[in-house]
Amino acid sequence: MIMKTKYILLIGLFAATMVACSRDEKSLFEDSAAVRAQKAIDNACDVLTSQEAGWEMAYFPNLENTSKGYNMVLKFKKDGSVSVTAKNSATTMNKLMTDSVSTWQVKSDYGPILTFDTYNKVLHAWADPGSDGAGKLGDYEFLILKATPEVVLLKGKKHSAYSVLRPMKNPDVVAYFTACENMSKKLFGNNNIVTLHQGNEKMYLYKGAEGQFMSAVY
Question: Which is it for the CA torsion 170, 173, 174, 178, positive or negative?
Answer without folding.
Answer: positive
